[in-house]
Amino acid sequence: MDKRRQDSSTDSAPIYLTYVHPDNLFVIDYPAHWKVAKDNDGSVEFTSPNTKSWGGMMLFRVALPIDIEQIEKTGQFRQLAVAMFAKVNSTNVRSDPTILYDNYTADRPAESGTEPGQAGQRWFVMAADLMLGISTRCSVENRETFISLFERMLSSLRIKRDDELLATRIITRIHGAIVAALPDAKITIEGSTIKTDKFEISVGNLLAQVKRNPAKFDEIVDQFIQGTIGLSRTDEVLGQELWDEVRSRIHPLLKSDKYIQEANARTLHRDQASDDSAFLISAPWLADLRICFALDNKDTFRFISNYDMQRWNVSLETLAQVAIDNLEALPEPELLTMSNDGGLSVGVIQPHAGAASSYLLHPKLHEIASRQLNGELAAAIPARDALVLFEYRGQRAALLEAVAHDFATTSHPISDRLFQITPDGIALL
User: Fold this and answer.
1) Half-sphere exposure of residue 236, counting CA atoms within 13 Å on the CB side?
2) What is the pLDDT of residue 301?
3) Quick one: pLDDT at residue 133?
4) Contact 155, 229 (CB under 8 A)
C-alpha cells in the first residue's frame, strides 16, 4: 500500500482502499488510515484510529441452519431479520437503499450498558447462499461524520462469488430433488459435479443457461431436474430403465459441438468399463452440430449417456436409427404460417411431442413444409424449442440478423446458422 495515501487520509477527508475477503465472499472500500482487524472465522473489523472520536464497522458471515433460497421464496427474510434484531436490542427495522443487495437494517441503542455515548446500526444482507451481518458503532457526538463514512463503505459492498453462489443454489436444488426421488442413493459433490452410485452430472452448462436468463432460474433448473436427470417419472428408477421399455421414447436432440465438449469436460464421467467414457454421447451431423439422444420424460428430456448404452448393449448406429424412427412415428407436427409486408411466408413448427428443433431431422420435413410454403425453403433452429421455416428469396443477411438475435437471447441455444431444406435432405445455406 502507498504509505503516502494512508498518511494523508483522515476521517474528514478520507482516501479509500479496497478490502478483498480472504475467501472472496465480498469486497468493500474502507478509509486508508483505518485499522483492519481480521479474525480466523473470516470476519473483519475496520476502526478509526482517532482516540477522541471512535468509530468502526464489522462484517461477518451469518451461519444459518436453514436454506436461504427458501427464505427468499417464502418471503421470510424480514421476519427472520426482525427476530435476529430483537435478540440484540435493535429497533426500527427497514431496508437500506445504500446497499445493492436485499437487506434490512435496525438502530442500535444510543446507550447500551458497555457502550455509553455510542450509537450505530446493524444490517443483515442476503445474496444467494450468503447472509452477511454488518455492525457499526460510533460516538454520538461525531455521528454525522461517521455516517457519511459508513454510507460510502456500504455503497461499495460487492458480493464477488456470483458464479459460485449461483452454482451453489443450483446444486442445492438438484441435491434436494435427488434425495427426494432416490432416498437410498449415495451422493457426493465435487466442485460443480454431483455424483451418485448410478450417475454423474455437472451443472456447468446449466449454470451458463441460468446466467443468460437469471429471471427464469426456477423454470430452467426445474426442467433440468425433471428432464436431464429424469426425475419426473416416479415409476422408473433413474439409471435402471430397461431398453424394451424406453426405446419408443428415445428422440434425437441437436446440440453444438461446443455444448457436447463442455458437458463432457466438466462432467469427467467415469465407469467400470472405461477410464474415459463421455457423459453425453453424440453423432456428427452438419458443421458444428451433433445429434445427441434423450429420453422423453413427458414434458422434459433426460440425456442418454454412455452408461445407458453400455447397460442396454446397443450401438450408436442402433440408437440413432431408433431415435429417427421414433421422430418420424410421432403425429405429424402443425405448421403455423404467416406472411410479412413483403409477401414472404414464414412458418413455425408446432410439434405434438418432442423438441421443435429436432424436426429438422425429420425425413419428411420438406414434404410437410412445401404444402404451405413455396419455392426454395430455409430453416433456423436458434433454440431447442424453435424451428422456423422461410420461403427463401435471397435475403440471407436479414435472416441471419434475426436468427442471431434469437440465438443470443434464448434459454436453450443451438445454432445461429441457416439451413436449406431440399427433397434430398438438409444442407447449410
Assistant:
1) 18
2) 66
3) 93
4) no
Average pLDDT over residues 93-119: 77
Strands, DSSP E only, in 9-128? 16-20, 26-31, 35-38, 44-47, 55-61, 91-94, 102-108, 118-127
Residues in the chain: 429
Task: Tell me which amino acid residue 239 is.
Answer: G
Contact between 221 and 173 (Cβ < 8 Å): yes
Q: Choose between 117 and 321: higher pLDDT.
A: 321
Residues 301 and 298: their CA atoms lie apart, in Å, by 8
Task: In whole angstroms, give the CA distance from residue 149 to residue 48.
Answer: 10
Residue (of 314, 308, 251, 249) closest to 279 by Cα position:
308
Chain segment 54-74, per-residue pLDDT in tens: 789 999 988 765 566 666 666
pLDDT number for residue 98: 87
Distance, in Å, from the CA atom of 136 to the CA atom of 131, rounded to the nearest integer, reads: 17
State the cell numbers at 18. Answer: 479496497
CA quadruple 326, 331, 334, 335: dihedral, nearest 10: 40
- Nearest-CA neighbor of 210 among 152, 160, 170? 170
The residues near 170 (Cβ < 8 Å, ≥ 6 apart) are 203, 206, 207, 210, 221
pLDDT at 218: 83
Which three three-digit cell numbers place residue 345? 411466408
* Rg value, the chain, Cα: 29
How far is the C-alpha of 317 from the C-alpha of 319, rounded, in Å? 5
Contact indicator for 345, 372 with CB cutoff of 8 Å: yes
CA 163 to chain centre: 8
- pLDDT digits 0-9 by tens, 241-270: 788 888 998 999 999 888 887 766 655 433
User: Grid coordinates representing 104?
Assistant: 434490512
Rounded (to 5) percent helix, strand, coil in the chain: 35, 30, 35
DSSP for 46-90, please give it. EE---SSS-EEEEEEEPP-SS-HHHHHHHT-HHHHHHHHHHHTT-
- pLDDT mean over 387-396: 88
HSE-up of residue 218 (Cα within 13 Å, Cβ side): 4
298: left (phi over 0), alpha (psi -120 to 50) or beta: left
409 residue type, one letter: T
Q: Is 75 left (phi over 0), alpha (psi -120 to 50) or beta?
A: left
- C-alpha closest to that of 387 among 362, 424, 422: 362
Residues 286-301 pLDDT 10s? 888 999 998 876 656 6
Continuous segment of H or E residues that includes residue 214: none
pLDDT > 50? residue 408:
yes
